[in-house]
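Student:
Attend to each token:
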Amino acid sequence: MDFVRSLPEAEEALDLGCGDGRLTRFLRARSVVGADTSVVALERAARRVRGMRAVRVRPDEPLPFDDSCFDLVLCTETVEHVRDVQLFLSEMRRVLQPRGRLALTTPVHSRRTALSVFLRGWESEFEPLSPHLRFFTRRSLQKLLDDQGFDVESIAVQHRTLLARATR
């Protein structure tokens, strides 16, 4: 919540993977679009966030938005669930305006994760039924964002979460 509240004001903001809108409501923007794959989540988000435009997106498909139409894209706890991460990030970059801001969070994995797996077993960190497909370290997220053409401003770790800020 603090991460989202700390983001600068925007004209046009996209919360990609908005879920039920719990964090979307803290965006400070003239216009907010909440996008998700779940119709149920979008209905909840629309009730929670007054004036938000809800848009259903499809996994592994281009985003249904024009080029350069947002000056802020928020993506919290979503990228780890995506099969085609390169497409996902390139689409975020495409819909961002030049010098637009990306704010992204994902669970952090590190030497601590490896040690936990070693000491307590695979299931201690990786639930067999978890929908997580990707596991990021600070370094791997930095490289991924760099490779996709983002200028990474910062990647912080807080409460086992990576908090990334980048610009197009």
